[in-house]
Amino acid sequence: MMAMAGTREMKAHVKKTRTRNQLDDMARPLSPASLEGLEPRPMDWASSTCGVYLLCNVDGAGVAVFKPQDEEKIPEHARGLVEGENLYRERAAYLISSEMGGFGVPATIIAHISHRNFGSKVGSLQRFVPLSTDMRDLGPAGIPIDQVHKVGCLDILLFNTDRHEGNVLLHHRSRHRRELIPIDHGLCLPELVSREGGANRALLREIYFVWQLWPQVGAAVLRTMARCGATLHGVADFVNASLGDVMQEAWARAAAPVPPP
């Protein structure tokens, strides 16, 4: 059986998980009770280069997705990112999504997981999204404009360097309502400017989002998305006040003095 520690992180600052109109089911914080006794099953997830485990309950149903820190791998083409920091970026993406409201990133925490198959590991733990499929075998036809715009706004805000069909889920909330759920944010928030190299111009030139060629992006920005722009000052304050705790280890390494040659 699996044991979980680090519930203090689970209760950490997520002061706005409620959107302007309703609480997003996927964004609800994970409770310690819901994670007890789960069994990890390795996932053959073609869209990820990292170790990924689906934590299942006694009925075999997925509850959460666990990505251990020691199984992280940064793709060779990735720029401005360092292995071992994905879990903090996954958590940061959820906190920003929750603070803004309405972007739908599933609840994500940093957790210590113990299991007989792999001992004790720390990593990101994200709520599993049922009744969904990724966009690899689907086209953008029929996807609501607001859903494409919300993923686009989130990716721009996070400067997500890894948005492709495999990490956008199509979730059937009801018979007549389909939503996009953005996941897999370990390669967001890259280092755009460094003391050593200055601006990361190559990254700025090469950034690509899968939704760029979807017809929905040509539509006028909806009022709900435009209102997000009005809250960017609030998000900046939130980042300064809150994400330092989440990204502390990553930022400490980045801020360390550069040794002389």
UniProtKB/TrEMBL annotation:
Keyword Nucleotide-binding: yes
Superkingdom assignment: Eukaryota
Annotated spans, Disordered: 1-20
GO molecular function, one term: ATP binding
Segments traversing the membrane: none
Record keywords: ATP-binding, Kinase, Nucleotide-binding, Transferase
Domain annotation PI3K/PI4K catalytic: ranges: 88-191
Entries under Pfam families matching the protein: PI3_PI4_kinase
Family that this chain belongs to: Belongs to the PI3/PI4-kinase family. Type II PI4K subfamily.
Protein name (Swiss-Prot/TrEMBL): PI3K/PI4K catalytic domain-containing protein
